[in-house]
Design brief:
With 250 residues, this protein is α/β, with parallel strands linked by helices. It has 9 helices and 7 strands, in the order αβαβαβαβαβααβαβα.
């Protein structure tokens, strides 16, 4: 959202639009001091920060599931925690990386790296999140299965590692949204929303009834932040009318 303007301007734009908090990807190529200053000047909270993923121009989307790149993973999680602490975030999205043909070596690297991250995040009181991403949006992304995500979360059994439930990806990967929310209730650490399959505003034409979905989340006890992880059909501000239409406020 607010992609109409450069990254550093988006904190103030979000504040002006009525948001109390934001989330973001890692601010590649920007001076961390400038990012922290922009957030502070806007007077807005930041809930979540994506991990440093490497060179996105080369298709890099994290290192967690890449054998032989454990050093890069450790550097990326430590770099992200350093910036996250300055931004006062409480959640970090740990991205897995792209793998064309996953093997048990990828599984082992992923689990070991998440164990390492969880130990650090526990000390820093920051919640780590893993998110299944659908293969239509990001082909070859390693973490593309809710079954696999829940399994590794259960195996590591850390209070600081939970599931990022992006309803858009959930619908594109497996559907059955109601039962997924019910089944994953204890693992959910953050929720994001967008219409499927176009990834526009929740009230935009598509496969999902978001008034029902949001009510279902409430009924199952989710009372934390919900990230608007969609691509506005037109301008960001014009697209926010759905919030009022649904009876919510920012």
């Amino acid at each position: 959202m607010f992609l109409e303007r450069p990254f550093l301007e988006r904190y103030q734009l979000a504040k002006n639009a009525g948001f109390k908090a934001v989330e973001s990807g890692f601010p590649y190529g920007l001076n961390p001091d400038d990012v922290v200053a922009a957030k502070k000047a806007a007077g807005i909270d930041q809930v979540l920060l994506n991990i440093y993923t490497g060179d996105v121009g080369k298709g890099e989307l994290g290192f967690a599931a890449l054998p032989g790149q454990e050093k890069q993973f450790k550097e990326s999680i430590n770099q992200t925690i350093d910036l996250g602490k300055r931004l006062k975030v409480k959640k970090i999205h740990i991205m897995a990386g792209k793998v064309e043909q996953p093997t048990s070596a990828n599984d082992t690297a992923y689990t070991n790296n998440l164990k390492y991250a969880s130990q650090i995040l526990e000390k820093e009181n920051i919640l780590g999140l893993i998110e299944p991403i659908n293969p239509y949006s990001v082909p070859d992304y390693y973490m593309n299965s809710y079954k696999k995500a829940v399994k590794v979360i259960s195996e590591i059994s850390s209070p600081n590692l939970k599931l990022m439930l992006d309803i858009f990806h959930l619908q594109m990967i497996r559907g059955n949204v109601t039962n997924a929310i019910k089944d994953f209730t204890n693992q959910i650490g953050h929720v994001q929303i967008a219409q499927a399959p176009n990834r526009h505003e929740p009230e935009h034409s598509g496969e999902l009834n978001y008034q029902y979905v949001l009510k279902t989340l409430e009924e199952h006890g989710y009372d934390d932040w919900i990230g608007l992880e969609y691509k506005p059909a037109n301008s960001t501000v014009d697209g926010l009318q759905w919030v009022k239409n649904f009876g919510y406020s920012l």
